Amino acid sequence: MGTEFDDTEFVDREFQAAQRRALTSGPSTGLLSNLAQPPSREELDSKVTEAQQKLVELKRQQEELERERAALEEARRRLTEFQTGRTEIQQHLTRGIGLLQEAEFVARRDAEQMSKTLQGLRESLTKVEGIREETWTRDTYPAELTRALTTIENARMEWNSARLKWPRLSGSEAEATDAAGSAGGGGWQALKDLSWLELCKLGLGLSWPLATVTLVALIVFVVLLLRR
After folding, report:
1. What is the model's pLDDT at position 221?
2. Does residue 102 lie within any of the structural domains?
3. Burial of 36 per CB tally in 10 Å (0-12, 13-18, 19+)
4. How many domains does the chain have?
5. C-alpha atoms less than 13 angstroms from C-alpha of 224 in its C-beta half-sphere
6. Which of 65, 109, 117, 211 has a C-alpha 20 to 30 A away from that of 167?
7. pLDDT of 188-228, one tens digit each?
8. Is there a contact between 206 and 157 (Cβ–Cβ < 8 Å)?
9. 196 occurs within a structural domain
10. Residues 123-155: tens digit of each pLDDT
11. Is 218 contained in some domain?
12. Dihedrals φ, ψ of 179, to 5°?
């Protein structure tokens, strides 16, 4: 009679149970133990060093941003200064050019009128200095005297006209200052400011020398007629 074998006799049930325990409980227990452990000194030092490096990098970036911000603010300030300065100096230059152009026109006009007045005074002085009474004779005396008086009267009219145009010729510094820059119309303005009586006196003052010369010439003419 043959011997019958049971398959379960060749199975190590304890080994199988140990394997099952290792697969089910072993790994999870090791992981939980690792998670529950506190960080080591080396890990903490590494994290502190890493944090310090990040702070240094952030500080460097902050300083770089501060420099960039300062540069932008300086550029903005200079641009504002440029725009404001350009507008201001344009206004000053435009106004200055206008004022100087007007002053130049007035100065040229006054210079031309002064040149004409100066020329008239020089011509009058030359004529007055050209009178040579030592050359007069008994026969030419009346005519020469009439001619000389006429020359003096013309010179006086030239002088009075120049005084009206140029108050400084009268020796009044205040009037000369007030009339500066308006000499061309200063004489007419002075005439406008005079009353009717003052104008009559001025007209008489300008015309009486000519009337005197005419009267003297008439007397001389009558005397010559009587001699004949």
Report:
1. 67
2. no
3. exposed
4. 1
5. 12
6. 211
7. 555 555 555 666 666 655 565 666 666 766 676 666 666 65
8. yes
9. yes
10. 999 999 998 888 888 888 888 888 989 999 999
11. yes
12. -90, 0
Spatial distance between the Cα atoms of 167 and 181, rounded to a whole number of angstroms: 12
The upper half-sphere exposure of residue 143, i.e. CA atoms within 13 Å in the direction of its Cβ, equals 5
Domain assignment present for 101: no
- C-alpha dist (Å) from residue 179 to 9, 168, 176, 189: 147, 9, 5, 10
**135 DSSP assignment:** G
Q: Which domain holds residue 149?
A: 113-227
Contacts of 24 (CB under 8 A, 6+ apart): none
Which residue carries 């005396």 as its tokens? Answer: 141
Q: CA–CA distance from 39 to each of 31, 42, 43, 44, 46 (Å)?
A: 15, 8, 6, 7, 11
The residue written with tokens 């009558």 in the block is 222
Q: What is the pLDDT of residues 73-130, one digit of tens each?
A: 999 999 999 999 999 999 999 999 999 999 999 999 988 999 999 999 999 999 999 9
Q: What is the DSSP string of 26-48?
A: HHHHHHHHHHHSPPPHHHHHHHH
Buried b (16+ CB within 10 A) or exposed e, 78-112: eeeeeeeeeeeeeeeeeeeeeeeeeeeeeeeebee
Identity of residue 104: E
Pairwise CA distance, residues 35 & 31, whole Å:
6
